[in-house]
Amino acid sequence: MEPHNLKQRGRQAYGGPETLVVVNDEYDDKSAPGAEFGSYPSRVPGTKGKTYGAYPALAVDARDAVCDPTDFAAVSLDAGVEGMLRSRDFVITAVLTLASLVTRLYWIGRRKAVSWDEAHFGKFGAFYVRGQWFHDVHPPLGRMLVALAEYVAGHNGTYEFKSGSAFPDYVNYRFIRMQVSLYGIALVPLAYLTCLQLNMSRTMATLAACFILFDNALCVMSRFILLDEPLLFFTAMTLWSAVSFQRVSKYGRQFSRRWWIWLLMTGVSLGCVMSSKWIGLFSVIMIGIATVDDLFRKFCDRMPWEDLAQHWNARVVSLIFLPLIVYTACFWVHFRLLYRTGAGEHKLSADFQAKLIGSRLNAQPFDISYGTAAEIRSLYDGPGLLHSHVHRYPDGSHLQQMTCFPHRDVNNRWILRHGGDKGVSTNYTVAPIELLTDGDVIQLVHNKTGAVVQTGKRFLAPLTTSHFEVSAANETDWDKGSRDWRVEVVKQKYKKRNRKRVHAMTTVFRLRHVETGCLMRVGSQHLPTWGWG
User: Fold this and answer.
1) Which among 30, 94, 17 is positioned nearest to 56, based on CA atoms?
2) CA 202 to CA 199: how far, in whole Å?
3) Rounded CA separation 108/89 (Å)
């Protein structure tokens, strides 16, 4: 057999025509024949008396040796150098990290004003610090890390991070930027370590890390309060963990402790990258394709079904359930931190809004009485509130438009009064309190314009022509339709209370038109420009 000449990724292993030194971290029998703890064979030039530290060296016949590259990746020592912490890889990693610190932190406070997307993400961090609810399109992990940086820097959450404005003296913006930049700093050593696991030499791995080190875009993004640094950091962690796992899986012992560590690290990193920005889903796709390919190759190699099932179970638990747990945990922390009322809460359910400190829904009565100004929310077809305005339909009845509007507005309020002539003649400010119950006939009066909701069979809906038009009419137009609606309770969330009464936020009900027998519903189509759709 030809002599082994091993130089994997620039790490030196010593072989000859007859012997080969193999670092075996799974070998722990100190009394076994041929086991020399830390001693190279004397036939290797310049290595006599040198040691590996705590790792055993096993001298075997080269024809029977099986070299595990992951062992060299774990130790990576040069001849004549003692201790892992003084290896060449450690020195290179330390130098690259130091250079990354310089390029990312040097004069980081030169720009003393809110720049670029700092106006968004710095403000979001301030919301977390003061516990005020807000809505954003991205998952919460990246924003919470920004909030952590602001909290550590002593920010009290009062600064609004208005674009272009100068930072006040009480905001230590330099320290906030430095903390966020740490995620960008870590990209350089991670690039080096990942390339080593990809079987590249030290020279090529260092060159790849230098590309990250001197990339102008990465340097600039790392110097501001943005979400890009945490996103790229978790993406790099995912790639490093996945490559290291594939290497251990190929050359090492299956289901060993190191095998599980790298697999679980991949799952945790996937959960973090998903929880930072939606674009992190591309990392999930990448790992998913690599995992399917790996399992398919094991199937093609006719692996026993029992072993293949164990591999499937390990991947499902570590790469599906674990990332979902991390993702869910981030949202759990997000909802725990934001406990005060704030912008964007109207997009969530009324039950959720009522749990926020300072919400206007906390001060309302549980029972609904006649004469109340109420907002009616659609349940099944979106979070829109029953809405009307002075604008009229261009066709059909030419009466006041009836729509659903997803935002807070004074035109969303309706006064509940009795049906028929009683509602017109009753003065609810002095009349006895009467509660709204199941089966009552009511009228809905627009609080802003005084128009009353009505419908009839004379006019079809402007878009869904299989339905009748719902409009709001003033006194001069009342002859065009009926105004009476019957309340039908569908569900009570709290059954211990009076089931016949209509309760705020907890009663699901529908409105049936008395004259036609039709139910009021929300259409699935948006109105054109004349309906502000």
Assistant:
1) 30
2) 9
3) 29
Q: Which amino acid is at 43?
A: R
Q: Scanning the structure block, which residue is given the tokens 């230590």?
A: 172
Residue with tokens 């945990």: 329
Work out the number of other CB atoms within 10 angstroms of the CB of residue 268: 18
CA distance 504 to 25: 67
- What whole-number distance in Å separates Cα of residue 68 and Cα of residue 395? 79
H or E element at residue 298? helix 281-300
| Residue 273 contacts residue 241 (beta carbons within 8 Å) | no
- Residue 398 Cα distances to 352, 360, 378, 392, angstroms: 38, 36, 24, 6
Per-residue pLDDT, 11: 38
Helix (H) or strand (E) holding 227: none
For residue range 258-281, list pLDDT tens digits in order: 999 999 999 999 999 999 999 999
Mean pLDDT on 54-60: 38
Look up residue 395 and give its amino acid: D
**60 strand-pairing partners:** 20
What is the reported pLDDT for 330? 97
Question: φ, ψ for residue 8 (rounded to 5)?
Answer: -95, 125
Pick from 153, 146, 140, 138: nearest CA to 122: 146
Name the token pair of 331: 């949202």
30 or 109: which leads in pLDDT: 109
How far, in Å, CA of 198 to CA of 321, rounded?
A: 27
- For the segment 203-216, the average pLDDT, to the nearest whole number, is 96
pLDDT at residue 78 greater than cutoff 70: no
Beta bridge partners of 7: 12
Question: What b-and-e string marks burial along 196-210, b requiring 16 or more CB atoms within 10 Å of the CB?
Answer: bbbebebeebbebbe
How many CB atoms lie under 10 A from the CB of residue 454?
A: 26
| Alpha carbon distance 93, 90 (integer Å) | 5
* Torsion angles phi and psi, residue 69, rounded to 5: -60, -25
Q: What mean pLDDT comes out for the span 461-490?
A: 83
Query: Any residues with CB less than 8 A from the CB of 286 and at least 6 apart, and which?
Result: none
Can you tell me whether residue 489 is helix, strand or coil?
A: strand
Q: pTM for the full model?
A: 0.73
The first and second tokens of residue 517, run together, are 């027998």
What residue has token string 């830390």?
38
Query: DSSP string of 170-181?
Result: T--HHHHHHHHH
For tokens 């076994």, the residue is 32
